[in-house]
């Protein structure tokens, strides 16, 4: 039997592509072209703050600034203008502020379009305790989420029964062996490179035996190639969700499917104080895009009070990605020092600092 066309989409050659750095390394004199999308709402404010920090640390990025989201609609009638896509196609590297997506009608999420356009198959969300005294101390976890497949593909339809046109709702997920191997290779290679001790594969193979059973089987197979370099174990997703709030320290790197990753990553962000401090990377065959997890926060846009931490931490991940690890380390330790020693925090973290005050404190630490 042939492969159905919709499934063939998931089996294109890129699925098995080996992991390769998306961007050539910079020597000290070289600049690295990168696309900058300030985004909507608080996006431009937190982007400006992040650029100040990147300048202070001597980051080698040469920015091409482009619009997307409502800002794209306002200038060119498209939430993902052609010039923005072409810039990312050229640079293969982007730092992106949050984009507003109208609820209900309107346009499709530009974030989802970007994931598809650049085959951003790996969503990487680290979570680390930044402010002591919260409910959980010393959290240091990374979630690696498959970003293109699973139940998230949204293959859904209704079946009418009698006079009810929507009497039955059906949805299908798609996991491919190639896609599962690719994300597992990413997770294990990441764990080895970052000197992590363990990868936990999270699934629901006891019930979704084919869909997540295949994911587990492929991930365990890849794990064998990393034997002796990083430990591996596995958990059923519901048990993992509970254990994350009972004893989160038992986890190190969590590798999971798209929908489970979506849910668990927010739970993990909650362990360290919420989405406001959560950075993310979307890494793919054709590009890597770094962004804060939070949205455009229209309620505080333009007031100068937005917390720029999440985008700054995303920028640190971007520095790691282009192998500027020392600059990334300096950004993180300046943030730690400002939060823990200088006690300067934005209002969402219980402080009184404006975006500008907070940014100035980090820049002062970097230059000090
Ligand atoms: P949101 O994350 O923008 O805001 C939720 C709450 O958190 C608000 O009260 C907001 O003021 C606060 N908040 C968020 N970021 C903050 C920051 N950096 N500093 C201080 N407070 C902060 O979520 P929402 O209101 O549900 O979404 C607003 C818009 O953003 C929607 O159009 C949504 O589609 C979009 N969105 C975009 C992305 C993205 O581009 N990656 C992600 C999530 C939501």
Distance between the termini: 67 Å
Alpha plus pi helix count:
12
Order of secondary-structure elements: HEHEHHEHEEEEHEHEHEHEEHHH
| Arithmetic mean of pLDDT | 91
Strands side by side in the biggest sheet: 2-1-3-12-11-4-5-10-8-9
> Radius of gyration in whole Å, from Cα?
21 Å
Computed structural class: alpha/beta
Uncertain ranges = 16-26
Overall geometry: globular
**Helix content range of the residues, please?**
25-40%
Classify the beta-strand content into a percent band: 15-25%
Strands, count = 12
Major β-sheet profile? 10 strands, mixed
In this entry the ligands are: nicotinamide-adenine-dinucleotide
Word description of this protein:
By secondary structure, the protein is α/β, with parallel strands linked by helices. The protein contains twelve helices and twelve strands. Strands 2-1-3-12-11-4-5-10-8-9 form a ten-stranded mixed beta sheet, with helices on both faces. The chain has a two-stranded antiparallel sheet with strand order 6-7. Helix 10 packs antiparallel against helix 11 (325-340). The protein is globular and about 60 Å long. The structure holds nicotinamide-adenine-dinucleotide. Nicotinamide-adenine-dinucleotide (NAD) is lined by residues 42, 46, 98-101, 111, 275-276, 291, 294-300, 306-307, 310, 348.
């Amino acid at each position: 039997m042939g492969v159905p066309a919709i499934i063939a989409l998931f089996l294109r050659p890129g699925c098995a592509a080996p992991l390769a750095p998306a961007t050539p390394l910079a020597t000290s004199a070289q600049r690295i072209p990168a696309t900058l999308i300030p985004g909507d709402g608080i996006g431009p404010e937190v982007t400006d703050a992040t650029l100040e920090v990147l300048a202070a640390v001597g980051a080698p990025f040469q920015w091409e600034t482009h619009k997307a989201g409502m800002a794209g609609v306002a200038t060119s009638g498209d939430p993902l203008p052609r010039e923005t896509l072409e810039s990312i196609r050229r640079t293969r590297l982007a730092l992106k502020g949050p984009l507003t997506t109208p609820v209900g009608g309107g346009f499709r999420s530009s974030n989802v379009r970007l994931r598809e356009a650049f085959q951003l198959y790996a969503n990487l969300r680290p979570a680390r305790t930044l402010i002591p005294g919260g409910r959980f101390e010393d959290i240091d976890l990374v979630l690696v989420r498959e970003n293109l497949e699973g139940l998230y593909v949204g293959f859904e339809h209704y079946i009418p029964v009698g006079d009810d046109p929507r009497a039955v709702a059906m949805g299908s997920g798609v996991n491919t062996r190639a896609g599962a191997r690719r994300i597992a290779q990413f997770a294990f290679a990441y764990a080895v490179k970052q000197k992590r001790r363990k990868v936990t594969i999270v699934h629901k193979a006891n019930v979704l035996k084919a869909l997540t059973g295949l994911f587990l089987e492929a991930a365990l197979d890849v794990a064998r190639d990393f034997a002796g370099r990083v430990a591996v174990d596995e958990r059923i997703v519901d048990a993992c969700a509970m254990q994350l709030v009972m004893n989160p320290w038992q986890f190190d790197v969590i590798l999971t499917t798209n929908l489970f990753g979506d849910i668990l990553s927010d739970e993990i962000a909650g362990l360290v104080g919420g989405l406001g401090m959560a950075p993310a990377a979307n890494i793919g065959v054709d590009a890597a895009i770094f962004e804060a997890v939070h949205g455009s926060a229209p309620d505080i846009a333009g007031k100068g009070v937005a917390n720029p931490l999440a985008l700054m931490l995303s920028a640190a991940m971007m520095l790691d990605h282009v192998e500027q690890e020392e600059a990334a380390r300096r950004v993180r330790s300046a943030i730690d020092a400002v939060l823990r020693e200088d006690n300067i925090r934005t209002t969402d973290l219980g402080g009184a600092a404006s975006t500008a005050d907070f940014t100035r404190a980090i820049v002062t630490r970097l230059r000090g």
